[in-house]
Structures are given as C-alpha cells and as structure tokens.
Amino acid sequence: MKRSNFLITALQCLVIVTLFGFDSPQEDVLNLKKVDGETYTTNNLTVNQVKQGVEITIPKGSKGVISFSASDEYWDLTSYKYMSIELENKSDQQVRFDPVLIYDNPRKKYLKKKENLRNEHIGFINSGENLVFNCTMIRDAVTKNDYPQSSDFKGMKGIPEGVVLNFAGVDASRIKKVNIEFPSQEFERRVILKRVFKNQNAVSEIYTKNKEEFFPFINEYGQYIHENWEGKITNDAQLKEALAKEEEELLKYSGSKEWDKFGGYKLGPQLNKTGHFRTQKIDGKWWIIDPEGHLFWSNGINGAGKLEVKTPIKGREHYFKNLPAKNDPEYAKFYDGQKYMFGKQNLYKKYGENSEFKYIDFSLRRMRSWGLNTLGGWSEESINEHKEENKLPYTVIVHETYPEIHEKFPDVFNPKWESNLEEKLKKRLEGKADDPFLFGVFVNNEIHWKNPAGLAISTLEKGKKSYGKAAFVKLLQDNLKEIHQFNKLAGTSFSSWEELLNTYVKKKEIKWVNIRKYTEAHYKNMCETYFGISQRLIKKYAPNTMYIGCRWHGNHKNNINLEVSAKYLDLMSFNAYENEVEHYKYPYKYIDKPFIISEFNFGALDTGKFFPGLGYASNQRNRGEKYINFVSGALRNPRCVGTHWFMWANSTTAGKGNGENANCGVVSATDQVYYELVNYMRQINYKMYSYRLQQQ
C-alpha cells in the first residue's frame, strides 16, 4: 500500500467518538490533497509508513514540518469544535509539536493579509504517550452568520458548546491547510501521526433536538448545566469538602524555599536595601530588587483575592435555574442592580460570614503555594491592612481617560484630566505610600494610543473647546507661521488659524502625508505630557513607588510612545496574549528598559466553559504546559522581569457586560482550583530564580 493511500484509509476507517456519538466516520474525515502522489509535504524530516499511521523522524537540533492540504480549496469545520491530531511519542523524551491551521478570511475587509492566516498552537507529548490534541478555533465575529444559534445567547462571546465569536479569529469554513511543526530540540524525535480529524459537534445535542429543553442552561452556582467535569459543584456540601481538600494541599505545598517574605531570592546576592522595590541591571540582565535588597522577579496574577463573577440577568432570565429572588432575605445582597454576583454568593456558601475578608488571606496563602509573588492589576489593594506574615507585594491601578480626545484616550492637555487623575491617585494611595509591599502603580489599561496621524485626525475633528486641538494648532502655527503655509501642505483653504481651531475638520479634508512631520511632533508632545504628569503625580503621593506603565496592548505600541515612556517609567508593562515572549520585540532593542508582561493566559473548553480567552489551549493540562513554556521563555529574556497571569477567576459562564465568559482563571466561578494547571505552575515558579540565573 502506498504511503499516501494508507493515511487516507487509516482516517476513513476510524469511528470518531464524540460527546454526541456521530455514526458515520465519513463526516469527520479530512479530504487530503495529493502533491506528487503523496497526501502530505515535508521539510527537514523523514516519514515512514507503519501499521498505526505515519512515523515521523526529526533530526537532533533541527526544525521539521509535515503539512496536509485540503483536496478542494478548503475544509469546512464550521460545525466542529476542534480540528484534532492524534500522535504517539516513540522518543525517550518529551516532544514539542506546534500545530498550525492555515486559513483564508476574505470577508474581513480591514485585514491587509486575507490569505494564509495562521491559527497557532503548542503541544507537548511525553515519552511513550498516545495523545489527542485539540486545536481550539476562536471564530472571527464576521463569520457570525455561520452560527445562527448565536442569536439565542446574547451577551456571550463564547456560546455552547464552544463556538467563540471574537473580534479576531478563524474563518472555520476556509481552513486550507494544517502544518505540524516540530521546533528544534537537542535529541532525535520519533513520533507516529495517527489521525488528523474534525472533532466534536459545535452545537449542543440537546439544543439541536429541542431548544426549549436546553433552557435554562446555567445552574444556581453559575455553571453550565448540560455538561459534567471534575470540580463541578452540584450542592453546598461539596464547597466545604473542597475547602478541606485544599487545606491539605496548602500544607503540602507551602511555597518556594527560594523566597524571602516579599517573594524575592533570599539565596542570592545581598544588594542595597532601600525599603521599597526598584530596578537594577546586573551582568547584562535586568532585575527588580525587593525592599530587603534581594533579587526579585514579579510572578503575578491579575484580580487576586477577588471573586465576583457579576452576571447580567435582565432580558436573559430564562438562562438561569433557581436564581434567588431579589427580595430573598439571605441572597438579595448578591444582586448589583440587574446583575447577580455568583462568585460572592459562592464565597459566602463556602467561607461563611465575612467571607470576602477571609478570602483575601486565603488567597495570599494560595499564591505562596502556587509560587506567585505579586498581586497584579485589578487585584485586592487592601493588603496593607492584613497581617504582616500574610502579605505579598501588590499593585494599584488607576484608570482615567476623561476628558477624552478620542474613545479610550485622554485629552492630556486638558487640566481636568490631570485633576481627575490626581484625585484618584490620592485616594487609592492613601495609607500606602510607605508600605514596602506596594510594588508599583499602573496608570490606565489598554488605552488606544493610535499613531501620530490617527491621533491628529481625532484631534482636528474636535472644536475650539478642545485643549488638545488648541495645542496642536499652536504647534502648527509656531512652526508654519502663516495659515497659507498650512493650506499649501494640507490642501485646505482656511482663512486663519482661528478658523482652523473653530472648524470640525474631517479626515478626508486633509492631505495627512504632507503634514507628517507636525503630526509626529504633536504626538511626541502628547506622550511627554501624558507620562510626565502621571509620573509626577505618582511620586507626589508615593515617592518611592515604581511607576509601572499603562499596560500596552495590540498594535498601540510604537517607536514614539515607547521611547518617550522610557524616560518616565520604572517598568514598562505589556498585555501580551502571545504563545511565547522569550524573543518579544518590545520594548525595541534600542530602548534599554525592563518590562513585565502585565497580562497573558491560556484557557480551554473542557470544563464547562465556552470561551478559552485570548490565549487558548487544548485542555487543562495544556494550559499548564503552555504556562511553563511562557514563563520559562520570559525568564530567559534578559529584559523581562515578570509575568502576570490574567486572571484569578474565570469570567461568568453566561458572559459579563462585554460578553467575556472565558476559562481564564486559576480558580472557577465556584472557587474550585484547577489543580492540573496549578501543579504545572509550581514546577517553574518554585525554581524561577535559580532557573533565571542559570540562563546565559
């Protein structure tokens, strides 16, 4: 039998067992394109037909790839939750493999690149193991019409049974190719590829058969009703049982032996004690130095010590089973207007009276046990009020963008913005200025910096009352002197600078490329003003505390705002939903400044959740594997001084106000620990200092 025909036959004879029991294996077979008589192409690896499938050998120290393409133009995986891969590892060590789905998305008009888009994954298979790896496909929101059931699940990015409709993602009807890439490892690898197949129906069988029977689908604890998994809570007694189990776990794993009381490296060099956190470059590698003068690497988590799980109810009452009445004498307190706080309810059931205060101390114990030493953004900020032996370093985050120059960015020239920011900082830093456990202050989160031209467009669209527009017009006037000089460059016909200031200018009315020099100068001036004011106010109310940035995200980073910020920030902060950051290009190489990853995560769809989050994994185990891989890479990056997981607890299953309902947590909405993830976290977190010091 030819190798190519063998793979097709092997695929066709498999009965794919899914949650919904498809009878026909033909539904799940991927029709494969032949190239020179073969159903695959390879690069830098060898293949051999064996009884179980295709045996792949990758040389030591080399990268290799095997690729399969659709026989027609595309595979249509619209009706499926995953594309899955089954492998067996015949090597004597763990093998990494990176499945990559290649797809086209012609319906996404604003994308410059509409072909050969990549949906990238990272998997690990242990020696001797047989593994089915599920490639999670976050679907692009423009493909919403492919999923008519989405209209029944308002306010949810992820809908049962795991179709995620987000602002950027896959067009599952246009999957054209799958690559299985093997990054370089220092040993010869031998694996058997057994299956590449469509896997699991993307629509609930109950919903398909009888929609009325599907609703309600959220139980009294805020969980998905129509699925079971380890850690699902079905009665109050299980909450108490879980607490007793975890007490044993916390005694068994009390924390890293490397740590001092701040989570710094007590076994390392003794440096200058300052009583607060600071940064220092040592032997070409950036570090944070803790208040006791020890090396510190900020391994943190967002939202620590909080569990609200605030869920909108209005207009969706039929989603929920056994929801307490708004006048319930015991549970009415968990309503916040038209939202119900399942998390606070579950804490009350688990920890009893004063549960939220108890939960903070318990969370700090958990963090030490898990190897986490920093409460990142959106976390509990009252750590200074707790017992010294329970404390860990914490952050304060202040978000202020009003008055705005455009949506999600402040008019930094308006004195009202400065006064608003000062009022918030003063209030939030009260009683904390001299606290050695105060790690640093974030000002804002994921604001929309745009680029010089984008900011200039937003600015000139304003009227004469805009402080930002007045600053820009003044800059133009100072440089060009006469309005006709501006008209000549911009292709306009204003009679005076005053007319320009008073006119709501539209984007199409200006030849922006001709005034690029001035838009960039204004943008730089805006950056200087933003970071200068923020730094001055932080130092006013907490003079020894680090200013740790604005949590850049997406494409809002550029050479101007990063370079200007480096003059004012102690640490740069980036929300990076990437698979790896060992070679992260930010800050740019010419900016010698330490940074932290202030948000990252990996979620999965195997525990009653419908959205993995922006970082995705095959299952709970793979979440842990990707965590180790991410943090290890960050530890090898000489400028990276920390990573903060987003976040403490899962989003609500039914979606919060913005639709998020992700498996982003280390704990669930019922405060159940994802032990498989935590066990992986400890593996790298407990040895992070010795590991970082060993890296050259």
Explained architecture:
It is built from 16 helices and 31 strands. It has 3 domains: 212 residues, Galactose-binding lectin (Jelly Rolls), CATH 2.60.120; 329 residues, Glycosidases (TIM Barrel, Alpha-Beta Barrel), CATH 3.20.20; 73 residues, no CATH class. The two termini are 50 Å apart. The relative contact order is 0.11. The longest helix is centred in the last third of the chain and has 26 residues. α4 crosses α5 and α7 runs parallel beside α12. With 696 residues, it is of the alpha/beta class. The strands form 8 sheets. Strands 1, 4, 6, 7, 8 and 13 form a 6-stranded antiparallel sheet that branches. A 6-stranded parallel sheet has the order 22-18-31-30-29-28, with helices on one face. Helices cover 26% and strands 21% of the residues. It comes from Flammeovirga agarivorans.
Provide keyphrases for this structure.
6-stranded antiparallel β-sheet, TIM Barrel, Jelly Rolls, alpha/beta, Beta-agarase, GH, disordered N terminus, 16 helices, 6-stranded parallel β-sheet, 696 residues
